[in-house]
Design brief:
This protein has 202 residues and is mainly β. It has one domain. Helices cover 2% and strands 57% of the residues. The chain has one helix and ten strands. The strands form three sheets. A six-stranded antiparallel sheet has the order 1-4-5-8-9-10, with no helix packed on it. Strands 2-3 form a two-stranded antiparallel sheet. A hairpin with a 2-residue loop joins strand 6 and strand 7.
Amino acid sequence: MPYASAEENVPEEDVSDVDVHDVPVHDALETRVFASVGGFFSTRSFNVTVEGSVTPDRPQKYVDFESDFNADDSPELVIVEIRWQFAQKWNLGLQYFRSSRNVRKVIEETIEWDDLVFEVGADITAGAEVDITRIVLSHHFIRKGGHDFRLAGGLHWLDVGASISGEATLGDGSTAFASNRASASLPIPNIGAVYQYSPSAK
């Protein structure tokens, strides 16, 4: 039986230089300037002592906010981050973390705080705050196919504060409603590793 056929010669595409790992990645891994706001929960123990002159011959007792005041030991932590890629493999980041807790309780044992003495049965309000500002310089070692791995180093600036208010015995022996806040700040070096993975562009 007679038949007819036609054939078109189509040049084959050279795929030898195509990297199968070069898949689209999320903008967060490619943009030169990246900003984010988020939060997470962290487990902590917060113990504070504030020395005063009411009973100078008595050792100061640490105030444990979790056990003495039933404060949440897994508070939420807010984080704000800005990251700038100023070179092909270098990033500079600025991060800010903050956590704050406030509780109210009738205390079951005497608490000495600076020049104040809160006696058993006092209805007090206690608060604790942690603020961390961190600047980080990071270098990309792997940045391919949605994978991003970098080593980072920098500096934390840590601010911690704690306060107690309520009916208290003052230094002159009288009683009155009083409030006192103590705080401290210090720098802490930081070193670590960061890994991010983007399964798709979205």
